[in-house]
Amino acid sequence: MPSKGIVRQVFVSALWMSTALATITVALPAKAQEPAAPALNSENKAFNIPPQSLQNALTLFGQQAGIQVSVDAAALRGLSSAGVSGSLTPNAAIGRLLSGTGLNYHFSSPKTLLITKTGTQGENTSSDGSIVLQTITVQAQGGATTEGTNSYTARSMATALKLPMSIRETPQSVSVVTRQMIDDKDYLTLDQALADTPGITTKIGASSVRHEYWSRGLEIDNIQYDGVSNNVHYFARDSDGQDDMDMYDRVEVIKGAAGLTTGAGNPSGAINLIRKRPLEKEKTTITTRASSWGNGRAVIDYSRPLNEEKTVRARIVGAFGAGDSYKDYYSNRDGLFYGTIDADLTEDTTFNIGYSYQDQKIDGFDWGGLPARPDGSFYNFSPSTFLGHEWDYLNRRQNTLFLDLEHRFDNGWKLNIDGRAAWSRADMRGGYTWWIGDNLWFYPGRFPYENDVYSFDVNTSGPVELFGREHDFVFGVNASRTKLSVGVSNYDALIMDPTNWDPSADPEPDAIALTSGSEEKTDQLGAYASARFSLTDDLKLIAGGRISWWKWDQEMTTYKTGATTYSDYSANANFVPYVGLVYDVASDLTVYASYTGIFKPQNYYGRDGHLLDPIKGTNLEAGVKADFLDGQLSATAAVFRTKRDNVGQKIIGISYCNPLASSCYEGVDGVETKGIELEMRGAITDRWNMMAGYTYAVSKYTEGSLDGQRFNTTQAPEHVFKLYTSYSFPDEHWTIAGGVRAQSKIYSKTQTVDLKQGAFVVADVMAKYDLTEKTVIQFNVNNIFDKRYYTSIDPTVGLNNWMGAPREFRLNLKHTF
């Protein structure tokens, strides 16, 4: 669909679905009076809730029982629970959890539990005398939903092992970007959200939309959507959508090796985007944004139950943005439509299906970034400098269909079936620069893309009684297929002077036929299993493994001659082990250690024009995790070490190993990364949220002729520090926030090149004012001191050097009804 039709597509789709929902609403019978609460399901369920704060215990109860819990947040402060374990009805389990707390409960429906404190002074009352509570809600959809929690931390996540565990129980370093953090920082896209995430470095590759995410000195190459893996191909980043944050509840990040459930990948981590789910009450939020860069955006987020029993619920999100940027000649128009429906097919079975559409049109598209001089010194460019043509462009769109089925068995086991299909299309025209001798050449071209990704994950998990103790198991299988097609049309190259370049000087060329093209397919299949063995009340052993099959093939064609080359590679039954130990020193203090294998096929070509063999190695991590203030504030300290063999290393001076590879590589052994990570996240008080993290990571060669030398110095800084904190004043109107991102130098030093970006600090601030309970105005200033720096540099010096964004003022207005 042409990009100029995106406004119509987004808002007509939103109008159509809103009309449909309204029609259903009118068709529903009017409620004459509150119905009596339905009888509670009397069947037993398996509960395993250890002693802890009552709020955390209720979170686990909602997760294990599949029940939504609503309770006044103030009523839980300072309360703890003795926990509950065994096969019980939800009614019996909640009775034990609340024993001695002075709280009462009742089920308003089989899936909704209300907890109240009777006889409390100062409670708000309505005109009819009933108690009105400001509640916090624990959703039945997993206990980890962050929307509406007003928190910078999450209670649980299952990204690492497919087992629902609290962050403290997970034997790896993890971070969660919550919905509150997304709103406070006004993140629009995934790259913005990860820029502030501890332990993550964001960079730009050979295109302004090829965002790279690095952790522990390595690139993260696996992005999941609701736990379904999506291996990110380097070229496909031009065609895939920009991961608009308006449709996500949170972003879960696990750092270190994550191959047990994701399959092949770097031992850097995995990113899991969790979509927003429909709410059990009607809610509409409208947000408008304006930026000092000359662009704006409008978003509507609407959710409601579709029947009186609230067993069918729907949610839609529509967004449209347009305008200019800080970059000269750049203009952008983008749109989003997201729709999803939850249906409780039975009391124990929930089905979710959804669809999203993203469309983006960029004029003045910057593909190659900025060059440096041959000796590595930088030109006196500004962040607005554009060294392309004004007729360069990128038009891309992505359609995504997803589904999820969860069935809860009576014995505490669950079956999850998740699937995702995404179809991406792009048409791009742009150019890049390259030094040949003393001349800087500019190579323009046109590149059409097609990228189709199909993936699914099926797993079952639950408790098993062994040797008088209860243990948790998960068994699963997942698979994916990626089909990528890239075409190339090369225009005439020219010599350019970057200090005297006019993007509007050259006329737009006529369309030319494709000169070459590539079609490649990647298949991955894996079976995994893991278990959490309860050796004692305080000591847990986590063990598992994955068997993977990986296959890749590529066909490249030169259309002028008709010459075709075919390459393929496969790896069969590769086993990756995982072992972890978690020991609870106290109810709020845990130490852990973990070990996992590494398996990573490479998209790097050797001198012979074929792909290098996969990287293999090991990943070790140990650390301590602590909860403070009844679990409202969490902290992690970790040390880690990875060692990899056959790592692709670029061969300087040799290029074009095949028609689509601009560089050649060779495999080297003994690449080792060591470091530490520190993170603290959560609420210091009811009004004060914070997030802080520090990472030290250094990668070196430990074998061969490069023994002792640094690895990836241009991509991975040794030191990264991030801090963000917000405070809400007692008048309940004003909230202020601020934060910094700091990193040490990145560099490339050879006999002829000394390329370096020194250490830098970037600061952001925010102020928010609640005009009413439902209307909020927010003002953000990004890069408040207008720091000028390069966020990415490239050792080839002739291209792919990208400057960070300058200062931006952003204002948004949000109304909820």
Automatic annotation (TrEMBL):
<comment type="similarity">
    <text>Belongs to the TonB-dependent receptor family.</text>
</comment>
<keyword id="KW-0813">Transport</keyword>
<feature type="signal peptide">
    <location>
        <begin position="1"/>
        <end position="22"/>
    </location>
</feature>
<feature type="domain" description="Secretin/TonB short N-terminal">
    <location>
        <begin position="67"/>
        <end position="118"/>
    </location>
</feature>
<keyword id="KW-0410">Iron transport</keyword>
<keyword id="KW-0408">Iron</keyword>
<keyword id="KW-0998">Cell outer membrane</keyword>
<dbReference type="InterPro" id="IPR011662">
    <property type="entry name" value="Secretin/TonB_short_N"/>
</dbReference>
<keyword id="KW-0798">TonB box</keyword>
<keyword id="KW-1134">Transmembrane beta strand</keyword>
<dbReference type="GO" id="GO:0009279">
    <property type="term" value="C:cell outer membrane"/>
</dbReference>
<keyword id="KW-0812">Transmembrane</keyword>
<dbReference type="GO" id="GO:0015891">
    <property type="term" value="P:siderophore transport"/>
</dbReference>
<dbReference type="Pfam" id="PF07660">
    <property type="entry name" value="STN"/>
</dbReference>
<protein>
    <recommendedName>
        <fullName>Heme transporter BhuA</fullName>
    </recommendedName>
</protein>
<dbReference type="GO" id="GO:0015344">
    <property type="term" value="F:siderophore uptake transmembrane transporter activity"/>
</dbReference>
<keyword id="KW-0472">Membrane</keyword>
<keyword id="KW-0406">Ion transport</keyword>
<dbReference type="InterPro" id="IPR000531">
    <property type="entry name" value="Beta-barrel_TonB"/>
</dbReference>
<keyword id="KW-0732">Signal</keyword>
<dbReference type="Pfam" id="PF00593">
    <property type="entry name" value="TonB_dep_Rec_b-barrel"/>
</dbReference>
<dbReference type="InterPro" id="IPR037066">
    <property type="entry name" value="Plug_dom_sf"/>
</dbReference>
<dbReference type="InterPro" id="IPR010105">
    <property type="entry name" value="TonB_sidphr_rcpt"/>
</dbReference>
<keyword id="KW-0675">Receptor</keyword>
<dbReference type="Pfam" id="PF07715">
    <property type="entry name" value="Plug"/>
</dbReference>
<dbReference type="GO" id="GO:0038023">
    <property type="term" value="F:signaling receptor activity"/>
</dbReference>
<dbReference type="InterPro" id="IPR012910">
    <property type="entry name" value="Plug_dom"/>
</dbReference>
<dbReference type="InterPro" id="IPR036942">
    <property type="entry name" value="Beta-barrel_TonB_sf"/>
</dbReference>
<dbReference type="InterPro" id="IPR039426">
    <property type="entry name" value="TonB-dep_rcpt-like"/>
</dbReference>
